[in-house]
Amino acid sequence: MTKGIRRYDTLAAARNWAPDHNGEPAKSMNITEIFGQNTLQQEDLKERLPKAIWKDLQKTIQEGEQLNPEVADAVAVTMKDWATEKGATHFTHWFQPLTGLTAEKHDSFITPNQGGGAIAEFSGTDLIQGEPDASSFPNGGLRQTFEARGYTAWDPTSPAFIMENQNGSYLCIPTAFASWTGEALDHKTPLLRSNEALDKQAKRALNLFDVDTKRVTSTVGCEQEYFLIDQEFYYRRPDLMTAGRTLVGAKPPRGQEMDDHYFGSIQERVLSFMLEAEKELYKLGIPVKTRHNEVAPGQFEIAPIFENCNIAADHQQLMMITLKRVARNYGMECLLHEKPFDGLNGSGKHLNWSLSTSEGMNLLEPGDNPHDNMQFLFFFTAILKAVYEYQDLLRISIAHAGNDHRLGANEAPPAIISAYIGDQLADVINQLMDGAAKESKQGGLLGLGSPVLPSLPKHAGDRNRTSPFAFTGNKFEFRAVGSSQSISFPIVVLNTIVAEAIDDLCTDLEEKVDDGKSFEDALGTVLSTSLKETNDIIFNGDGYSKEWEEEADKRGLLNLPTTMDALPHLTDQKNIDLFEKHNVLNEREIHSRQEIWAEQYLTTRNIEADTTEAIAKTMIYPAAVRYMNELAENVERIDRLGLNNKGSQDMLHKVNDGLNDLNDALEELREVVLAGNGDSVIESATYVKDEVIPVMNKIRDSVDFLERYVADDYWPLPIYREMLFVK
Ligand code: ADP
Ligand code: MG
Known about the structure:
Blueprint: H1 5-15, H2 31-34, H3 42-48, H4 51-63, H5 69-85, E1 88-94, E2 106-108, E3 110-112, E4 118-120, H6 124-128, E5 129-130, E6 151-154, E7 161-165, E8 168-178, H7 188-208, E9 216-230, H8 231-234, H9 238-243, H10 268-283, E10 288-293, E11 299-304, E12 307-308, H11 309-329, E13 332-335, E14 349-357, H12 370-389, H13 391-397, H14 401-404, E15 419-420, H15 422-437, H16 439-442, E16 469-471, E17 476-478, H17 488-514, H18 519-534, H19 546-555, H20 563-566, H21 573-581, H22 587-640, H23 646-675, H24 681-709, H25 720-725
Parallel strand pairs: 1-8, 15-16
Antiparallel strand pairs: 1-2, 3-4, 5-6, 6-8, 7-8, 9-11, 9-12, 9-13, 9-14, 10-11, 14-17, 16-17
Helix pairs in contact: 4-5, 7-17, 10-11, 12-17, 12-18, 15-18, 17-18, 22-23, 22-24, 23-24
The structure holds adenosine-5'-diphosphate and magnesium ion.
């Protein structure tokens, strides 16, 4: 009989993993040499392109001007030459459908000809437009199948790059993905549009402060958390393979209680992985800066230096792909799920966000003279207003099945959106609100008392990790983003709501100035009025506490605990108005997103339910039955020998109870799954949340109960203790 012995083989294989460097001397890495070697940087293009073409291209990249076909042709030739010099044989339009992943379809640079030879072909048309057979990407009703084609369009603002493989490499051209009617089917298109909206409003505001700039964009830097486990375990866990998280599994006797993992020294195998992953990321021009252990055992973090939001979003996708790919070279699986292990910290992605001019001025850097202070306070006030007025959208932007396990679970920010600004800024803002009340006497901002803002500690935010949206000295940190998700939509929301708030404040300000008020007076009034309306969003206390939930409720802040509480609000009229006004998404595009995301939620949960059932029925139940037989035999034998068999009897009862509970829960699951069929995707998804998940949890409870009683050598699944601590 094999029993659970196979699990021990797995364990042994994991334990015996060894690097294949055979004691070769340590390698070193020359970062400056390899950095960006696989991306077509602006400098490369400048060097290779005729001057006039280069200038034209810059107009497109920096000022958003339409690209002319001649330029496209010239860039295509240059791009192909560069890529083939690097050994690329194929190219692909690389895009980001609404699955949250990336997609590619490869075409060869070489076209075989009749005579048996081959010619290299890649034209401007190939560069700027592609037509992937994209009928199976989610479109939420935006495309009928008869017009399912959709097309991809080159994004010249994000550098093309080369992906390498042992057996060859290919050129990736970042593209947007749209339907033939021009509707966005992807994450990149609205991101670019939202940055346009932000640019327009931010420049309008800067103009009032006499600052002239070519362009304003949001800047983004993400701290990515992830788990690593040995692949031997991964392939023995159907739940990890299909759902990305463990659907059953009892907590280990020693979890993260010892707090010995965080910032601990990094294990050799993990370090090897990190170094190779970083090397690959450097080659792609991704400026990785930080690495460290995280709170949970087996959990780590990687963070790059910030970049403009569009490039940061592309790079974030590449980072996730690279982490997963490189981990396999070290016999490990990188888990990006928000909650791979129950009872341990989950993984998030802190999205650091700020605003920058093309000349590099950070608009969220507090100033060191009164004029700069005012400008800073203007943008700061606009952001608080944006977060207050569009709490729902921020909440929706991070809503998906995986994140439901993390938010509000006392290890991640709650589902209530609030902003942490620290005591010093809170003080400044209180003065500003008071000051403007006495405005006529004191004259607007002079009521601030101090002409220069106190210098704010850059890492102030880290003192309060419980806030979903924290000001950390010169940027905001949106901490509720899930580890596996695309960061695009959260950025779209931030860009758009802040554009809207700036728009409102500017309109107020311009009117007051037109009415003859001085700029300073007008500004003081506008800011203090806005702050008074929106400062309920500020919360500097413990976001994990029960009291905050009550307090937030009193303040009338939204509390949308799960995806299916949040997602229906995406199509609220005020949100449609917002996105349409700023040309970020039209009504159809918004509806399609809601539909796609509800569908994704539903599919995820259905897969989880099916997998839970399969594991419970075909792996756990049989193991428990075998052990029960052994116990039953034992009970009888002991009895025949005339000995006290209480111990075995007790065990037998426990396992039998566990099995009966499991059986009941499995039957209940069948019933609820069969009964559920809503009229709309939203209804079906909500049903699954309300009815199916509780039963899945019952199954889990029974399985985890059995895990504590069934003989270890019968247990078929790698257990938490093994997965988390063996590396
Ligand atoms: P921590 O949050 O752990 O204290 P840092 O403050 O050094 O770490 O930065 C965290 C992340 O914030 C990094 O990815 C960094 O590049 C990013 N970041 C720093 N400044 C900005 C900015 N102006 N805009 C966007 N992201 C930024
Ligand atoms: Mg941080």
